[in-house]
Design goal:
Two copies of one chain form a homodimer.
Chain A (H helix, E strand, L loop, with lengths): L7 H19 L4 E2 L1 H8 L3 H10 L10 E2 H12 L5 E6 L3 H8 L8 E8 L8 E2 L2 E5 L3 H8 L3 E4 L3 H13 L4 E4 L12 E4 L2 H24 L5
Helix pairs in contact in A: 1-4, 2-3
The structure holds a DNA duplex (30 and 30 nucleotides).
Chain lengths: 222, 222
DNA sequence: CGCAGATCGAGAAAATCATCTCGATAAAAA
DNA sequence: TTTTTATCGAGATGATTTTCTCGATCTGCG
């Protein structure tokens, strides 16, 4: 029995709709059709309807959806209207970048503390967030009931830190390290696979070059 | 006629295999079976075989694959053995983080210069890479034959900068901004959708909480 | 030298996801 | 008021991806 039968692909598209809708609202637009969203974001309009349907939002024929309603529906569906505290471990380049981001609060996550193993980093403040020695993580996580962990440590440390997180009560990990964490199934892990992204990019580029070269040389039939 | 019939999902898994294989090699392991890879990375073993098959690598029954061969095959398939120069625009938090990353070279990309619209940032060096005024991008990109652009500017500037990149000869864009770029189809765009990732995480967590709550309260039948 | 066990790879079946089709509905136009 | 048109939403169809099944192959052991 599946608890969440919503396709993952839908889940991944919703934030993109959401940001598009925010921009529409800023521009003062009140109504929007699935077809328009589809054109703007490169998604088939029936797909957009199916995606929006899972949030419970309804549109009216000939009118479309109210932008406000859609935004609210998506927020509620993704639980982005309830902000959860998160701890970040690894105050290196990526960790620092994330600490500097505004906008995660809008996505349901507030980074309330950062941790690092290096004494050089611990004790400082980055973007207004304190960096603490990683030894303090377990106790603080439990006391503050933090359930989201953000993992921005080097690959070789990631598994160990992740296990420490889970042992400290963390239920969901946003993982930036390029490894697959081996954790109990009950833990939610969401990988930000930067290298996967680069792999796709690089391959596409290579294929394009190859097919361009082929087009240039093969002019006669086989 | 599709030039590249390799499933995108396969493309996304290959880098993950790749990093796992690198770790195996470091540990001195010479042979590996598809089944073992599957267990380590949470992928079905037949899926692993199909994925590895696209790279052209062959395994031997009862033995498995040579780790070295697999690494080489994946590198070649993703074109990660040829490093291309890339320009980064937007030397903010994320841009700075990417400039500090070692390891992209292994993934076929070398960031050779960064650009920023802010005079406050231009002129400096970050992680050994010069930050130049964004106005210099077009000329330099053409002269250096740079075809990869990395986009780490705020969402509201992304579309404009992307168009500038394309006009300067950029063929592939690694986009970190949370918007869908509208560009000619010939341009390869790879989005790093941080918010999609957060959407999935947040939804999963919410569903888990809900189903846990349901389990706690609904003990009698309907 | 022949058998047992592990692994591969190809093709069939199943599951998932995206697109197409069509009737219904609401607003605007005639 | 009736017709037209834009849009929705549900269900059927189609495409893609994943998993299952099975025969073939190679190694190591008796």
């Amino acid at each position: 029995m599946r608890v969440d039968s919503v396709p993952e692909a839908t889940l991944r598209r919703l934030p993109s709709y959401y940001h598009y809708l925010l921009r529409l609202r800023e521009k003062g637009q009140e109504l929007i059709s699935a077809a328009q969203i589809g054109v703007a974001l490169g998604v088939h309009h029936t797909q957009v309807r199916k995606d929006l349907a899972v949030t419970g939002s309804q549109g009216r024929p000939k009118v479309g959806h109210r932008v406000d309603d859609l935004i609210a529906s998506i927020e509620e569906f993704l639980n982005w209207n309830n902000v959860s505290d998160a701890f970040l471990v690894g105050a290196g380049h990526m960790g620092t970048a994330l600490l500097g981001y505004e906008g995660f609060e809008r996505a349901g996550v507030r980074i309330v503390a950062a941790f690092d193993a290096s004494p050089r980093r611990a004790g400082k403040k980055i973007q207004g967030v304190s960096v603490l020695p990683v030894e303090k993580f377990p106790d603080l996580a439990r006391r503050m009931h933090v359930v989201i962990g953000i993992l921005t440590v080097p690959a070789e440390d990631a598994q160990g830190v992740a296990e420490m997180m889970v042992a400290s009560g963390i239920q969901a990990i946003w993982n930036f390290a390029p490894i697959v964490l081996e954790l109990p199934e009950t833990v939610i892990v969401e990988d930000v696979a930067l290298y996967s992204s680069l792999g796709v990019l690089s391959r596409r580029l290579a294929v394009r070059r190859k097919s361009a070269a082929a087009r240039d040389s093969v002019r006669a039939g086989p």
